Amino acid sequence: MTAHQNGTISIEVPDFILNCFVRSPSWKFWLSLPRSLLFLLAMGANSILLLTIWLEVSLHEPMYYLLSILSLLDIVVCLTVIPKVLTIFWFDLKSISFYACFLQMYIMNWFFAMESCTFMVMAYDRYVAICHPLRYPSIITDQFVAKAAIFILARNSIITMPIPILSSQLHYCGINVIDNCICANMAVSRLSCNDVTISRIYQFVGGWTLLGSDLILIFVSYTLILRAVLRLKAEGAVAKALSTCGSHFILILFFSTILLVFVLTHVVKKKVSSDVPVLLNVLHHVIFSALNPIVYGVRTQEIKQGIKKLLKKVC
């Protein structure tokens, strides 16, 4: 409890209430089943992919190490967000502690930024493999992957850390009900009694600097790949390369587009239902974690063979 100079008293918020889909309660029921299945698919597919790469010696190569990083990020994001959302859907356990809320906020921002950066490194890997195949073994090495992992970890950790710090330093003195299923920065900071301009500006600038720069480099990489692929004269080479890189690029574009749509729905929130951004947030945290191991891993012939060997050992 805090006393102000004007004599008023405000109560410090000890925890938050995640009040999602209150205007559309039926959505909880219809979302719980597919979300649970997507969660199981994401956890299962990424775990199998990690285990396959770890056990299969032939997959101990830089490209598959990058896939392992992506799978690990997907698993952490799922475990950070989905179990809490499901407890809200199934048991109506909406309360989340003050510190747990901002920890969730940090992990979500940090790991999504790392995922975007990993996509960028993987796009560069494909660029070198297709445009400079003879130099690939000397450029994409184990040391390259180690340096890339350190860069991914450090860059995104440093830049995203101020987001939850700025939000947690705000004064929350009244309403503690978050109109979301997760502790999204914009939804939480809106409850503050302070001016949140600095927090929002930093999130906007930092977020779009990270995601924007990654997307530009990814686009440049795949543009150069497309130009090189169209010059290939070997029969079937163009179709194979376009099939692989095309699916990668479409997934990355979808990843970025849904974030843009999410932001735009917040900007024009008066013209759309307030449940729409919440729904996009809910889906964004699980759908890509389920798709990534399928698009990047299972469609790769070497991964398929590794999974078959793993299943034979288990059975």
UniProtKB/TrEMBL annotation:
Gene Ontology CC, one term: plasma membrane
Record-annotated G-protein coupled receptors family 1 profile domain positions: 45-296
Entry keywords, A to Z: G-protein coupled receptor, Membrane, Olfaction, Receptor, Sensory transduction, Transducer, Transmembrane, Transmembrane helix
Pfam families to which the protein is assigned, alphabetical: 7tm_4 (PF13853)
Membrane topology annotation: Multi-pass membrane protein
Transmembrane segments: 37-57, 64-90, 96-123, 144-166, 208-230, 242-264, 276-298
Main localization (coarse): membrane
GO BP: cellular response to lipid
Subcellular location: Membrane
GO MF term set: G protein-coupled receptor activity; olfactory receptor activity
Matches recorded under Gene3D superfamilies: Rhodopsin 7-helix transmembrane proteins
InterPro entries tied to this protein: GPCR_Rhodpsn, GPCR_Rhodpsn_7TM, Olfact_rcpt, OR51/52/56-like
Function: Putative odorant or sperm cell receptor.
Name the record gives this protein: G-protein coupled receptors family 1 profile domain-containing protein
Gene: LOC115271867
